[in-house]
Design a protein that fits this description.
Length: 254
């Protein structure tokens, strides 16, 4: 259900329930969480690329998973939240390649990418209100940060289906490419990140995510602490050495 494949230093994760538009079930979430732990533990993995199999990225929660029984959504969301915490604290940079529709929690997952690329035919819909629900999986946290409060209100209340180009204009994705080039282009970005200073990437993500809740003094203090940490990495040493020797750096992710 979540296919794992190594391509050099990149761990390619593919949501793999194409017959259901990669809709999310407890099982898929469990597998995704486990794959993210594996990525963290494997020193050889220096970047993660998340995409979907078939014609969709993910249609969000599988609305048929529970049959007639009405589950306790608050409890069910713990499974989502565990994955979202893992994505937000992933110890490697995350590239997301949105190959088709991304709806509901599927869209939320896509937004957690540090770098987000979409196929020209991809689409984005928040979807939650259409079935009488509120945003989840971090959507209420990320969306206003990415697009501003006014746009977030519009996207969450009216749930329009955005094209890839519209998503690009709003800053939901960084680049749109022809569908047949998506994986190749996303892999190229992931490979580039896989050769970079891994700790600096991850600490940069942390600074950006924290920035909105911190005062200037607190942000400056956190920058100093995390710069201290980045400054102690071998990659920083190598970066400076390479600069002095006028050659490209060979970062090791340490
Ligand atoms: C689906 C789904 C789907 C099952 C399409 N499930 N079958 C919620 C609940 C509780 C706690 C946790 O958090 C959440 C978070 C959420 O994610 S809530 C939001 C759930 N997702 C949606 O409401 C999205 C519903 N789907 C759509 O809006 C569209 O299907 C999208 C935009 C994804 C794709 O549209 P199309 O390309 O036009 O495809 P389609 O609508 O024709 O769907 C194709 C098939 O896939 C169809 O089945 P059928 O048997 O008729 O061919 C759909 O029923 C099925 N499908 N989404 N989430």
């Amino acid at each position: 259900m979540v296919q794992k494949e190594r391509q050099g230093g990149v761990l390619l994760l593919t949501l793999n329930r194409p017959e259901r538009l990669n809709a999310l079930t407890g099982e898929v979430l469990e597998e995704l969480w486990a794959a993210l732990q594996e990525a963290n533990q494997d020193q050889e993995v220096r970047a993660v690329l998340l995409t979907g199999a078939g014609r969709a990225f993910s249609a969000g929660q599988d609305l048929t998973e529970f049959g007639e029984e009405k589950p306790d959504y608050e409890a069910h969301l713990r499974r989502y939240n565990r994955v979202v915490e893992a994505l937000s604290r992933l110890e490697k940079p995350l590239v997301v390649a949105v190959n088709g529709p991304a709806a509901g929690a599927g869209m939320s997952l896509a937004l957690w990418g540090d770098y987000r690329m979409a196929a020209d035919g991809a689409s984005f819909s928040t979807a939650f209100v259409r079935i009488g629900l509120v945003p989840d999986s971090g959507m209420s946290f990320l969306l206003p940060r990415l697009v501003g409060l006014a746009k977030a209100q519009e996207l969450l209340l009216l749930s329009p289906r955005l094209s890839a180009e519209e998503a690009l204009a709003l800053g939901l994705v960084h680049r749109v490419v022809p569908a047949e080039k998506l994986l190749e282009e996303a892999l190229a970005v992931a490979q580039e990140l896989a050769q970079g200073p891994t700790r600096a990437y991850v600490l940069t993500r942390r600074l950006l995510l924290e920035s909105h809740r911190l005062s200037l003094s607190e942000a400056l203090a956190l920058e100093a602490v995390l710069q201290g940490e980045a400054g102690r990495t071998l990659d920083h040493e190598e970066g400076v050495r390479a600069f002095r020797e006028k050659r490209p750096p060979r970062f090791q992710g340490r």
